[in-house]
């Protein structure tokens, strides 16, 4: 099961969906308040999204499904692993491991970015058709923003603007508690944490903190990739996911 990041939806995975579906049964969800999924009652929080995803897995007989997450979704699948929910986990550039000025940078830069994205919606189709426009729009998210497919770029920018819970979740992520870890030798399934060397949303130095909190995890580096390796290195991301999932238990 694929879990997207803040403001995205299942279409965020389009660059790798066909490659994964050729080998595995794939479920790509819209988190509550994103895409076609209705929001949860009350204020949107990371904890509420995680609870809802855990309940969804259990209700649909997917409690042992392998989980792949991106950004906020990457943190979410790590939290599910910490709770003992789900099968093997691949976490792509997870949030929740910042500290000090990094936390402020995350909240301020994404807050300014979403305001600009909303203002530019009338001209977004034109901007995303241009390599120059994509470079300007995706400079923080991708190490190769001009290569992001125009269709993916437009859908992502429109999804960010349409996600009514974006501001609530951003505030919770930036000001709330960091991601908790789990003791060594307590993971019952395989956990892989992967990071782009050129990530400008969650800088790669945060990988050391993630590994210290999830000592049973394996670390994979994406060279020359930004925050979304499924965009910058689709083939490598597909290969990583297929190689680290499907076995059921730790190896």
CATH topology: Rossmann fold
Instruction: Please report the number of helical segments.
Output: 11
Which stretches are poorly predicted, pLDDT < 50 over at least 5 residues? none
CATH architecture field = 3-Layer(aba) Sandwich
Radius of gyration: 17 Å
Helix proportion: 40-55%
Instruction: Let me know the number of strands.
Output: 5
| Cα end-to-end separation | 20 Å
CATH homolog superfamily: Alpha/Beta hydrolase fold, catalytic domain
Helix-strand pattern: EHHEHEHHHHHEHEHH
Roughly what fraction of the amino acids lie in strands?
A: 5-15%
Structural class: alpha/beta
Q: How would you characterize this protein structure?
A:
The protein has 251 residues and is of the alpha/beta class. It has a single domain (2-244), classed as Alpha/Beta hydrolase fold, catalytic domain (Rossmann fold), CATH 3.40.50.1820. Helices cover 45% and strands 8% of the residues. It contains eleven helices and five strands; from the N terminus they run E-H-H-E-H-E-H-H-H-H-H-E-H-E-H-H. Strands 1-2-3-4-5 form a five-stranded parallel beta sheet, sandwiched between helices. Helix 3 links the parallel strand 2 (67-70) and strand 3 (89-92). Helix 1 crosses helix 11 and helix 4 packs across helix 7. The longest helix has 19 residues, at 101-119. The protein is globular and about 50 Å long. It starts with a strand and ends in a 7-residue tail after the last helix. The relative contact order is 0.18. The model has no long low-confidence stretch (mean pLDDT 95).
